[in-house]
Amino acid sequence: MPLSIQSLAAIAIDLQTGLTRRDHFTLLVSSLRQLLNCDATALLRFEAQQFRPLAIDGLTQDVLGRRFALDQHPRLEAIARAGHVVRFPEDSHLPDPYDGLIPGHDKLKVHACIGLPLFADQNLIGALTFDSLNPRQFDQFNDEELQLISVLAAAALNNALLVETLEKQSLPDFVQQISIARDGGEIIGSSPVMQQLKQEIGIVAGSDLNVLISGETGVGKELVARAIHLGSARAAHPLVYLNCAALPENVAESELFGHVKGAFTGAIQHRVGKFELADNGTLFLDEIGELSLSLQAKLLRIIQYGDLQRVGDDSMKRVNVRILAATNRELKQAVVSGQFRADLYHRLSVFPVVVPPLRERVSDIPLLAGFFCERYRIKLGLTQLVLRGDALTALEGYPWPGNIRELEHAIYRAAVLARATQNGGVTELLPLHFNLNSQTAPEQQDNEMPPILVQGDLATLTDQFQREVIRKVLTASDMNWAATARKLNLNSGNLHRLAKRLGLK
């Protein structure tokens, strides 16, 4: 049945109701899927040479987290390069980006597929895709009717982008979306807590306030720091990274402030510290809670006055640096216990930002899983990587003590296992590839002692025991040495020296 003007007008009227942009897009794709009576519909936004799904109907939820780069998906590239309706032959040899991603259908074999590029002022802003398992489903619709759909969708998408731009005009130099970083890093998530986080990032990015980013290991604190920097007036200047937990005490001051030739044994030339490298830009101090009290005092002086003194140099240099600090510790408690300076804490936490753990944003797991599936599909050279429904259910039911980093590693490991045991175009990730049920709960991991093979003298057995304990706690701490030291109640420097003696480093 041909499309009627009345049916399209009804959709256009519905789009004028007081819904959120996301609900507008969801309404659009569901209405169009019903109108064309097809199996799957998707509205995609085009940016940075890739398509990002905004709304889907008839596809698995993880599609919303996938990012379809043009050079990896020839069908989408054909849509992007076309200025009109694209009808793919039912037996097209071009791989379909949604192969295996329509629930209940393992593979899209012979099927009908249409792509509509969406334009605003002759600029490509997105696309609509329609898939049907009936090869003849779209024969009844002519290109003029489908072009009307593209005009309707383009207007809805362009209006949303204009509103988004207006909302961000108050943020100086905010030239990119907060979710897209220049090097491809992206903050994935649409849950309420993540919407709140992105709003906070947008608010503080345009200021020049110091920010304390707190959250558990693996939640993505560095991505938040990068988004704040890119949204600031300092975006054209460097973002310099320093992991305070990895700094040996004897070189920490030099790393931060630099040194002059001859300042100490081994100082054979001048060295520029991280503060000078970040001048007029941003310095990201990760694991700030691991800095010694003496270094905290020197850091406070630079924050207060902007005066920098290299090690071994009597002269002062002024720097203009914004500090973004991150920690997985409770710094307030560290202040109370005397392990962290109260005045430095208050200087750093002018605008505190808390990144939620993954267990508090379970609805984002499908998006994150889709994002990582697409990343490792490309990395492993797979035609398609699909997360089966029961596997996604298992992921959503797991507490993820290592948060997003643990989820990413789990998907990568599962993809490697699946590739080794499956043949064919579509590689499926199954529950057995994750083996989450057999993993020990995090609170039990810290209490259980590793089994000991009793052989050798006492010194050998003691080394073996220490080696296994450190290895186990280090793994449970996501390879974070500072966190491992805290759990073992050891000085960080002593732990590094012990690990080196035991052959762990």
UniProtKB/TrEMBL annotation:
Coiled coil: none annotated. GO terms for biological process: regulation of DNA-templated transcription. GO terms for molecular function: ATP binding; DNA binding. It comes from the Bacteria. Residues 187-416 form the Sigma-54 factor interaction domain. SUPFAM superfamilies: GAF domain-like, Homeodomain-like, P-loop containing nucleoside triphosphate hydrolases. InterPro entries: AAA+_ATPase (IPR003593), AAA_lid_NorR (IPR058031), GAF (IPR003018), GAF-like_dom_sf (IPR029016), Homeodomain-like_sf (IPR009057), P-loop_NTPase (IPR027417), Sigma_54_int (IPR002078), Sigma_54_int_dom_ATP-bd_1 (IPR025662). The keyword Cytoplasm does not apply. It holds the Pfam family GAF. Keywords: ATP-binding, DNA-binding, Nucleotide-binding, Transcription, Transcription regulation. SMART domains: AAA (SM00382), GAF (SM00065). PANTHER family: ANAEROBIC NITRIC OXIDE REDUCTASE TRANSCRIPTION REGULATOR NORR, TRANSCRIPTIONAL REGULATORY PROTEIN. This is Nitric oxide reductase transcriptional regulator NorR. It comes from Rouxiella aceris. The gene is norR.
